Automatic annotation (TrEMBL):
Alphabetized PROSITE patterns for the sequence: ABC_TRANSPORTER_1, ABC_TRANSPORTER_2
Keyword Transferase: no
InterPro entries reported in the protein's UniProt record: AAA+_ATPase, ABC_SmlMolc_Importer, ABC_transporter-like_ATP-bd, ABC_transporter-like_CS, Mo/tungstate-bd_C_term_dom, P-loop_NTPase, Transp-assoc_OB_typ2
Protein's recorded name: ATP-binding cassette domain-containing protein
SUPFAM superfamilies: MOP-like (SSF50331), P-loop containing nucleoside triphosphate hydrolases (SSF52540)
Species of provenance: Falsirhodobacter algicola
This protein's GO CC annotations: ATP-binding cassette (ABC) transporter complex
Lineage, highest ranks first: Bacteria, Pseudomonadati, Pseudomonadota, Alphaproteobacteria, Rhodobacterales
Alphabetized PANTHER family for the sequence: SPERMIDINE/PUTRESCINE IMPORT ATP-BINDING PROTEIN POTA, SPERMIDINE_PUTRESCINE IMPORT ATP-BINDING PROTEIN POTA
Domain ABC transporter, chain residue ranges per copy: 7-237
GO molecular function, one term: transmembrane transporter activity
Biological process per Gene Ontology, one example term: quaternary ammonium group transport
Keywords, ordered alphabetically: ATP-binding, Nucleotide-binding, Transport
Length: 324
């Protein structure tokens, strides 16, 4: 549903000299949604985010928020705020003063700005460390402070550029949950750039997949994963095989490929144990290798080994025809 509070990109284009980083993209982001902008390195995601934030000029096109064109406004006047990958905290300021910084720039009195900073520090569970310096904090704690600092201007859209990439895998999963909780509590739009498929699937209400400066596919996370429209999306999201049937390309999820008594003859080339499941790679004449994923219990009930001759099948309904 479209409302006046949408963030809208209209024919948005960014060129750096001869390089087209963003090529006339159109998109409407629903208000209050968690959006992940996903794609390989160099596809144009950061340029898109930086244009929305106002840290990069727009070459052509427009960015509208609440129906007004914000593309020429300075960052602080847009209704957006950005959280950077490296957090960019001021090392000489306490946690509380870091969070209150933009209010100080606006001339808001000390008592007032500290009160507002403490409220946000409570929101991110950092109020007890408000007097510390950034160097006295862990990576995860610094990130919470950076979040509080970005949120103090009460943005309608929070922009996050690879916010979890500096964290170790354990903390990354924990902070992922925190970001989602925060977004729900605040009810504002989060636009989060990542090149991690798992991260996007775990977080996003809407996944926007970019490739070569354009949007390849956008939709609910489950839809983009289950029904990729292009070969690029099928391969990039992972978990799919691309097969050629009657001259047309189709995607089929690896866990929808059955190994059984009937179907396409195949030879097992590799078996990979993945903890709770096992990926069996097979060679089929006239196809690229096809991977079948099964539960470890199902796998160990068979005697499949590299070199085994097997047969592959799937339900027709699980095939998704790909755009040429
Ligand atoms: N300041 C710049 N000057 C010239 N070219 C640039 C500049 N910034 C980005 N580019 C180019 O624009 C294209 C898109 O870059 P962008 O940073 O938007 O991609 P990205 O998808 O965010 O990549 P990554 O995941 O590696 O950050 C790339 O080809 C990049 O080399």
């Amino acid at each position: 549903m479209r409302t006046p509070h949408d963030l809208e990109l209209a024919r948005l284009t960014k060129r750096y000299g001869d390089t087209v980083a963003v090529d006339g993209i159109d998109h409407v982001f629903a208000p209050g949604s968690y959006v992940c902008l996903l794609g390989p390195s160099g596809c144009g995601k950061s340029s898109t985010l930086r244009m929305v934030a106002g840290h990069e000029s727009v070459t052509e096109g427009a960015i509208r928020l609440n129906g007004r064109d914000i593309s020429a406004l300075p960052p602080a006047k847009r209704g957006t705020a950005m959280m950077f990958q490296n957090y960019a905290l001021f090392p000489h300021l306490s946690v509380k003063d870091n969070v209150a910084f933009s209010l100080r720039m606006k001339g808001i009195g000390k008592a007032d700005r500290h009160a507002r900073a403490m409220k946000l520090l409570e929101l991110v569970d950092m109020a007890h460390l408000s007097e510390r310096l950034p160097t006295q904090l862990s990576g995860g704690q610094q990130q919470r402070v950076a979040l509080a600092r970005a949120l103090i201007s009460e943005p309608e859209v929070l922009l996050l550029d690879e916010p979890l990439s500096a964290l170790d895998p354990f903390l990354r999963v924990r902070m992922r949950g925190e970001l989602k909780r925060l977004q729900r509590e605040l009810g504002i739009t989060f636009l989060h750039v990542t090149h991690g498929q798992d991260e996007a699937l775990a977080l996003a209400d809407e996944v926007v997949v970019m490739n070569n400066a354009v949007i390849e596919q956008a939709g609910p996370a489950r839809e983009v994963f289950n029904a990729p429209k292009t070969e690029f999306v099928a391969r990039f999201m992972g978990g799919h095989n691309v097969v050629t049937l009657n001259g047309a390309r189709h995607a089929i999820r690896s866990d929808a490929v059955r190994i059984g008594p009937d179907g396409l003859p195949a030879t097992v080339s590799a078996v990979e144990y993945q903890g709770d499941r096992v990926a069996v790679t097979t060679n089929v004449q006239g196809q690229e290798p096809i991977i079948a994923v099964m539960s470890d219990a199902a796998f160990y009930a068979t005697d499949i080994n590299p070199g085994a001759h097997v047969r592959l099948s799937w339900d027709e309904g699980r095939l998704h025809r790909l755009r040429a």
